[in-house]
Structure formats: C-alpha cells, structure tokens
C-alpha cells in the first residue's frame, strides 16, 4: 500500500465514523413533519422560494414529501443546467428580482448564517413573502455537529495531518482528497463542496476555516436571541426549535445541545 493511500485511509477516521451526516430527504421529512404536526400546512398549493438552494436537491425532496409545495430555487452559483431543480434562477440572493409579496412561503437551509445573519438581507427576503406567509429557516448553531466537525478539521492536530496529506497531491490537485471526503461521507462531502462554491474558496477545507473563524462568531447563540431577531422584523407566532441528528425538529427543552444539528425557526410574516 502506498504511503499516500495509507494516509488517506487513516486520516481522522474517527471523526467521520462518529458523525451522522446530513441527508436531504431526512431534512425534508423532518421539516414537513414538524409543519404538519403544528398545523402549518393545509391542502392548498404553496408557492415557496428556496433561498441559497444549491442545485435544488432539498427542494426536490420537499416536493416529494409534500406535493402541495411548488418551489422556486434561487442561488448565485452558476450550476450546470442538467443538475438543477426544475425551477432555478441564478441571482444575487441578497437582492431579489421579485415583486413584493410574491411567495406564500420561504425556506432556507444554512445560507442565512453565511450572510452574517444580516438584518438587511432578511428584510429583503421577507419583502417577497406575502403577509401571513410562512418562513422556515435552518440556521447554524454554536454547538452543532456541523460546526464541531469544522472545529475538529481546523484543530492543531487536524491541521498538521491535513498538511501532511496535501503534500501527497502535487500541483495543488486535491481531487483525491475530495474523493476521500465523499467516500467517507458522501452527503458531508457534498455539503462542504456546495459551500465552497458559494464562498468562492479554492478548497473545501477553507469552508471549515470560515465556519470556525467567521460564521461561529456571528451566529445566534440562544433561543431567545433567535426569537428576538425575527420579532424585530415583524415575525409572528415564532417557534425556535432544534434539529437533532435524525433531523427531527424538537423544542429546545427536549434536546441537548450536543445532539443538535441546527436551529429550525418557523414563523409567519405579520399582516400589514
């Protein structure tokens, strides 16, 4: 066995073996299950906008789980057409090309955290939501498994191992390393890869650094902080919950932070 292959196989195996990856269908089932349990969904068509959608895998899953969703995806990354969801628009997601009150519902998974939890951006998003419409947001959380993974990847030991590993790839060709990411955990590797494109980084390890050094400092640190932010922007009936490793949304009182993947926030836009 070559030294390169051996290093790839042993590189922080424990990290990946102990982490339950995100899965788009599980996320969709968790979101729809929560909304149904709390009487947030009926039997009418819901025109939804998915902000920072990637290629739209989550949107496709949401539509399969709840056929009344009709989702439009918007992202600033120019994906290949054959990969994209049926209704996809490439555009700056902080300046939307839609009229006021264009959509019945908004959905976004993690994207808002990368935009610094900007009040201006959220006001722009809510502008296109009709009064009384629902907003469903997945946000990075301080002690989430996702962020903990990033911390471990940028720790001193991980940094040393990573530097040793990339020396095996001449001319900055990290394709072998990315293949290893995907072999160990396909969904996790794809998550890093999509965010790498969104952040215009050369390599997905820089996504981990961005999470630890930037996103972690700007994210919401408590249920109260999350609720106050959306109340200040006119949100009503605000429900702040935690998504577990199984992507089931639970109240903050029923889930330990160590088991948390993200905040899941549900609210409706106030009637104007």
Task: Compile the SSE list and pairings.
Blueprint: H1 3-10, H2 13-17, H3 24-37, E1 46-51, H4 57-65, E2 69-75, E3 88-90, E4 103-109, H5 111-114, H6 119-127, E5 129-139, H7 145-153, H8 156-166, H9 175-184, H10 186-198, H11 205-218, H12 223-232, E6 235-244, E7 249-251, E8 260-269
Parallel strand pairs: 1-2, 1-4, 2-3, 4-5
Antiparallel strand pairs: 5-8, 6-7, 6-8
Summarize the structure.
The protein is built from twelve helices and eight strands. It is 43% helix and 21% strand.
Give an overview of the whole structure.
There is one protein chain. This protein has 272 residues and is α/β, with parallel strands linked by helices. Helices cover 43% and strands 21% of the residues. The protein has twelve helices and eight strands. The chain has an eight-stranded mixed β-sheet with strand order 3-2-1-4-5-8-6-7, sandwiched between helices. It is globular and about 55 Å long. 35% of the residues are buried.
């Amino acid at each position: 066995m070559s030294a390169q292959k051996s290093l790839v196989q042993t590189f922080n195996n424990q990290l990946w073996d102990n982490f339950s990856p995100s899965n788009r269908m599980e996320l969709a089932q968790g979101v729809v299950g929560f909304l149904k349990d709390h009487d947030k969904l009926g039997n009418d068509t819901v025109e939804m906008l998915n902000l920072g959608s990637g290629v739209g895998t989550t949107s496709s899953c949401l539509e399969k789980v709840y056929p009344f969703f009709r989702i439009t995806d918007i992202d600033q990354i120019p994906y290949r057409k054959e990969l994209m969801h049926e209704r996809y628009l490439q555009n700056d997601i902080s300046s939307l090309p839609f009229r006021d009150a264009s959509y019945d519902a908004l959905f976004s998974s993690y994207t808002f955290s990368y935009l610094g939890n900007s009040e201006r951006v959220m006001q722009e998003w809510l502008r296109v939501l009709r009064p009384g419409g629902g907003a469903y947001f997945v946000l990075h959380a301080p002690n989430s498994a996702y962020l903990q993974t990033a911390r471990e990847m940028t720790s001193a030991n991980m940094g040393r191992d990573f530097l040793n590993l990339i020396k095996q790839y001449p001319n900055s060709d990290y394709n072998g390393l990315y293949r290893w990411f995907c072999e160990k955990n396909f969904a996790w590797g794809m998550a890093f890869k999509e965010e790498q494109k969104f952040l215009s980084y050369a390599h997905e390890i820089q996504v981990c650094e961005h999470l630890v050094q930037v996103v972690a400092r700007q994210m919401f640190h408590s249920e109260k902080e999350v609720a106050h932010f959306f109340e200040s922007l006119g949100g009503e009936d605000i429900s702040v919950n935690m998504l577990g490793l199984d992507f089931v949304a639970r109240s903050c009182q029923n889930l330990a932070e160590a088991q948390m993947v993200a905040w899941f926030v549900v609210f409706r836009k106030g009637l104007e």
